[in-house]
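Long-time lurker, first post. I've been practising inverse folding by hand and with some scripts of my own, and I keep getting stuck on stretches where the structure tokens seem ambiguous. Below is the full token string for one chain I'm working on. Before anyone asks, I'm not after the true native sequence, just a reasonable design that respects the backbone. If someone could post their per-position residues I'd love to compare against what I wrote down in my notebook.
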């Protein structure tokens, strides 16, 4: 019996790809192990969105190398964005790597493994499936009824934000048909899944291939909104439908209307802004102004009362002045984000921004990041504190860490919430109403209102560290 281990870096798209890698391997007779020293196959699924992630990969490969010397026949594969970006070059930089596998080449893994096991030389397969895009299906996991699952609706990105390597590592946009998306969701929900997150690099630019998009600029109509309505109608047992990450310029009136209409959509959206300075947004080629972003955000929050927003922000992009950064802080205040991922700008190969000097000193980048995080933390704390005394619906994901009879899950707005269940009860997979009794820095504590269900609807699955949202 052959054993494998997959180590994942980066965004949720990579987490999803890792799951597909696992499925392909299970189909090929491999079984999972948590112990890299026992693995016959080690897959590192990589991220190249910032240089730091790439450094981490190189040092991990260094630590994995001895495993190959200790046991004959161990196959070391590098998948994901660094694989796509570097291709053959990676085999020169790390000659002990056996296989370099692009995100679109996951289905070829078994045949490539046969070649490697047969003694073939190291190989790089990094070809985009432009003509016939393949979307690996998310399947219910055998013996498991997971609470939450991802479903890809599109891949690649046509935006070309000047700092971003993703259009290079993931190719141009390709869309999956509405029918297959709805079918996959229906199958997952039949298998016990309660919450689906639709994935795509610019998830809300999705459109039905073959049907001309009404407009690729901000328009009032959006086929993505139609897709959400379809899922809500055709899979009525779905408890929650999330999506990540939308691009602000595809946040159409129609999509906002869907948030007002569809109770299956949670009251939270992750809407990357990147900067609050018009000059910086222009240089980043984000194709909206700060005024447009703020207006859209406010219309969305009015359409669905209580809706919160989180975001991604890059600090220290070339040419960012103190005044530009203060514009960003000002936008963070005006929109009232309750969470944010912040990143220091990192020059990436093949991106247009490489033509701009990386001129914000490292200390200034660090200082701006700290100020950004302080402001967001203040807003998050105030937001959570204001929820004390309110009632919230928690989709229970499993026992809280430490197993003290306490369970945890996510509220409608994606806040982490804990509550106590009577001994012997396991409400995993149910939506439980709680009254919030206490607010911590990043989570809530509450008391269940009414009966806590006795038996689970789903199985709690411990996940590794939290992944970043997919870009946009
Ligand atoms: N440098 C820093 N941050 C980046 N991101 C994307 N490219 C870069 C880069 N070159 C950030 C964006 C994106 C998030 C996932 O990563 O904020 O939304
Ligand atoms: Fe595309 Fe998002 Fe990268 Fe912009 S930041 S190029 S929208 S993946």
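-- Answer (accepted) --
I ran through it position by position. Result:
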């Amino acid at each position: 019996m052959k054993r494998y281990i997959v180590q994942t870096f980066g965004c949720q798209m990579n987490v999803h790809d890792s799951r597909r890698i696992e499925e392909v391997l299970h189909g090929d007779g491999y079984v999972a192990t948590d112990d890299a020293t026992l693995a016959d196959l080690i897959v590192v699924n990589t991220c190249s969105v910032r240089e730091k992630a790439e450094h981490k990969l190189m040092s991990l490969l260094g630590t994995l190398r001895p495993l190959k010397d200790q046991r004959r026949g161990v196959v070391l594969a590098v998948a994901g964005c660094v694989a796509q970006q570097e291709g053959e070059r990676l085999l020169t930089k790390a000659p002990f790597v056996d296989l370099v596998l692009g995100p679109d080449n996951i289905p070829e893994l078994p045949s490539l493994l046969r070649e490697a096991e047969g003694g073939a030389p190291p190989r790089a397969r990094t070809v985009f499936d432009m003509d016939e895009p393949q979307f690996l299906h998310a399947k219910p996991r055998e013996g498991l009824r997971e609470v939450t699952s991802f479903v890809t609706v599109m891949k690649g990105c046509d935006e070309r934000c000047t700092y971003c390597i993703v259009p290079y590592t993931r190719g141009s946009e390709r869309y999956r048909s509405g029918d297959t998306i709805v079918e996959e969701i229906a199958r997952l929900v039949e298998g016990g899944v309660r919450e689906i997150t639709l994935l795509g690099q610019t998830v809300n630019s999705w459109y039905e291939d073959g049907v001309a998009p009404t407009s690729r600029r901000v328009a009032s109509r959006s086929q993505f909104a139609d897709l959400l309505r379809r899922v809500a109608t055709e899979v009525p047992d779905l408890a929650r439908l999330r999506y990540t990450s939308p691009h602000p310029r595809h946040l159409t009136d129609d999509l906002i209307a869907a948030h007002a209409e569809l109770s299956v959509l949670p009251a939270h959206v992750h809407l990357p802004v990147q900067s609050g300075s018009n000059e910086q947004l222009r240089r980043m080629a984000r194709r909206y102004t700060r005024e447009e972003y703020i207006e859209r955000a406010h219309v969305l929050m009015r359409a669905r009362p209580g809706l919160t927003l989180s975001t991604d922000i890059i600090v220290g992009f070339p040419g960012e002045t103190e005044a530009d950064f203060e514009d960003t802080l000002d936008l963070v205040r005006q929109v009232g984000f309750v969470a944010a991922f912040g990143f220091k700008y990192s020059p990436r190969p093949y991106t247009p921004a490489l033509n701009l000097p990386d001129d914000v000193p490292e200390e200034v980048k660090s200082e701006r990041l700290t100020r950004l995080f302080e402001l967001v933390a203040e807003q998050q704390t105030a937001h959570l504190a204001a929820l004390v005394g309110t009632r919230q619906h928690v989709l229970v994901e499993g026992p809280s860490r430490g197993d003290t009879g306490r369970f945890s899950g996510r509220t409608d707005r994606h806040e982490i919430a804990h509550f106590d269940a009577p001994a012997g009860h396991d409400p995993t997979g149910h939506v439980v109403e709680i009254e919030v009794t206490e607010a911590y820095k990043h989570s809530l504590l509450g008391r269940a209102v009414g009966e806590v269900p006795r038996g689970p609807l789903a199985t709690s699955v411990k996940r590794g560290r939290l992944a970043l949202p997919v870009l946009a």
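A couple of notes from the structure itself: The CA atoms of residues 393 and 433 lie 4 Å apart. The mean pLDDT is 91. Happy to go over any region you disagree with.
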